[in-house]
Amino acid sequence: MKTILSVVGARPNFMKVAPLHKVFQQHSASIRHLIVHTGQHYDETMSKVFFDDLELPHPDFYLGVGSGSHAQQTAKIMIELEKVLEAQKPDLVIVVGDVNSTVASSLVSVKLGIRVAHIEAGLRSFDRTMPEEINRLLTDAVSEFLFVTEPSGVANLKREGIDQGKIFLVGNVMIDSLIRYREKARRLSVVGQFQVNPRAFTLVTLHRPSNVDTREGLEKILTIFEELSTRTSTIFPVHPRTRKMLEQFGLSQRASAIKNLHLTEPIGYLEFLNLMDQAQLVITDSGGIQEETTFLGIPCLTLRENTERPITVEIGTNRICGLDVELIVRRSFEVFDGKAKRGSVPDLWDGHAAERIAEILRKTI
Fold first, then answer.
1. Is 81's pLDDT higher than 90?
2. In sequence order, what are the beta bridge partners of 117?
3. Which residues are catalytic, by number?
4. Measured between alpha carbons, how far is 18 from 13 in angstroms, rounded to an integer?
């Protein structure tokens, strides 16, 4: 019996671990799979609900680290996870994505002599001002198994001198979850709650500090919403960080006054998938949503200067816009006028990435 311990901490991690857990359950005679929830995202709606939506069991361990600076959060995770690792002595620790939980868990594991598998390895924005980029680089440097979603990841890891024998192009576990739960999400009636019609609304998600932590950035975003309000209804589940900054800069009233803008609390994975699947356009600064919209064939405008998921731009439906108000409005209107960018689905984004990962691990750990 081999023990594999998976670490989740922030919203996207749950969708990535869920398909792995399902596959490991099929091999319960030879694999004991434990889930550690660091509590990095501690908001009820953004975290706990994912265990219900994704049919995951209650985590075996909850570290409850909560908020804090990057250093505080990373240190708390390392201190608390070390206790779990010393007690459970797993054969492998799986980390996913690029959040503080990812790098903290990787570092404490390898220092205890425990091998690490990184899911979504090799993704690079080449922007070291992003904390996530530092997390990716450090995690990949210490991981024994690097499971990659797209060819750019393989090229990046080879260029960084990673042993080719550690690199596996397996596809995208995020898409595994989307395929598994798409029909369940479709049965919900979320669109009706906002009194909008399918393919006649824009869905927005924004949370990155580069967009929401300055008055200038938030004012540009509100200007975009005001411009789009003449052509579309916009549904904007507001991240707690974004809501706090709107209030801090005294912009909440301006936001509330925008015609056809629906500001709502963060919503669960299935509800969000329901909306995304029926949107005419998605505007985001999230990495995972760039991938999901490419799979769904929904036009996506990314409000960043770069992306660590270039395949979504090269063959998918994604376009990088920065925070250029004029460009974003123009490209939005192109979508509304039926001139959206067409895309295709990358190879291996077929719903079976978790199976490929499990097969590799079963043979080698």
1. yes
2. 94, 145
3. 207
4. 9
> Cα separation of 213 and 195, whole Å?
31
The tokens for 5 are 């311990």
Report the alpha-carbon distance of residue 257 to residue 237 in Å, rounded.
16
* Helical spans, DSSP H, in the chain: 11-25, 48-53, 70-88, 100-111, 131-142, 151-159, 173-186, 190-193, 209-212, 215-228, 240-248, 252-256, 269-278, 287-296, 311-314, 325-336, 353-364
Q: Report yes or no: 323 and 284 within 8 Å, Cβ to Cβ.
A: no
CA 97 to chain CA centroid, Å, is: 7
Q: What are phi and psi of 167, to 5 degrees?
A: -100, 130
Tell me the C-alpha distance between 302 and 206, whole Å.
10
What is d(CA 203, CA 266) in angstroms, rounded to the nearest whole number?
A: 13
Torsion of CA 185, 191, 197, 198, to 10 degrees: -20
Q: Are strands 201-205 and 115-119 parallel, antiparallel or unpaired?
A: unpaired
Give per-residue pLDDT as tens, 143-202.
Answer: 999 999 999 999 999 999 999 999 999 999 999 999 999 999 999 999 989 999 999 999
CA 326 to chain centre: 27
pTM above 0.90, yes or no: yes
